[in-house]
Amino acid sequence: MDVMQFVSNIILIFFPFLFALCFHEYAHGWVAKLKGDNTAEMMGRLTLNPLVHMDVVGTLVLPLISIFSISSGGPSFFFGWAKPVPVSARNLKNVRNDMFWIALAGPLSNLLLALIAAFVYVLVITHVAPDTQDMVKKLFVSFLITNASLAVFNMIPLHPLDGGKVLARFLPASINHKLEQNEHISGFILLFIFISGLGAIISYPVRWIAQGLLHLAVMIFGVS
């Protein structure tokens, strides 16, 4: 394995992924607080500190194994997660609506970061000397793709993902209760999707989002 390539991939893949995860979980906790539940804040989770959001397997082991594989010329499969931010439904005034917005906050926060990354990327290619662009361009392209990927993946309408909680807003309570009770089955379905290679399907909406945000940034900055 090329050690320098491994270190480069840590910077270009792992760090953007780690920040995106922390921002995602912070967004859940922040909106929950706005809706009347300060559980995340009381448990020290209303922060961008990666140590409090980190899941050993999902945030460290699997992502680093994936980066090792990529750096060694192996499969480019990348997968991971953080510890979910706790939300106490009893503190919410309108559980159905409030949980919808709390769940949606995570993917929306990643779309915001993706938009910022697109803007920075366009500014770099238009205002920074070409000989100093390369690393910065790679970093913000990675940041853009990472956040677009997290937004799309988390909106898959299955529990325990955010998309399942967003979908719950539009389902009868009895059906949603059964889906929540069987979310372990959904977990196996998600695992199968990625192991079988079907997870590549999400690359299409990710690409559309990334290209759309870049086009928006180009229009705003008037780049020809």
How would you sum up this structure, described in words?
This protein is mostly helical and 224 residues long. The protein has one domain. The protein is built from ten helices and no strands. It is globular and about 60 Å long. The mean pLDDT is 89.
Secondary-structure topology with pairs:
Layout (H helix, E strand, L loop, with lengths): L2 H32 L4 H4 L7 H4 L2 H16 L23 H33 L6 H21 L7 H7 L4 H9 L1 H13 L7 H19 L3
Helix pairs in contact: 1-4, 1-5, 1-6, 5-6, 5-7, 5-10, 6-10
Order of helices and strands: HHHHHHHHHH
Rough outline: globular
Q: Distance between termini?
A: 41 Å
Mean pLDDT: 89
Unreliable spans = none
- Biggest sheet record: none
| Class from helix and strand fractions | mainly alpha
Number of structural domains: 1
The total count of strands amounts to 0
The radius of gyration over CA amounts to 19 Å
**Beta-strand fraction estimate:** under 5%
Task: Provide a count of the helices.
Answer: 10
Helix content: over 70%
Give keywords.
single chain; mainly alpha; 10 helices; globular; 224 residues
Summarize the model shown:
With about 220 residues, this protein is an all-alpha fold. The chain has one domain. It has helices spanning about 5-35, 40, 50-55, 55-70, 95-125, 135-155, 160-170, 175-180, 185-195, 205-220.
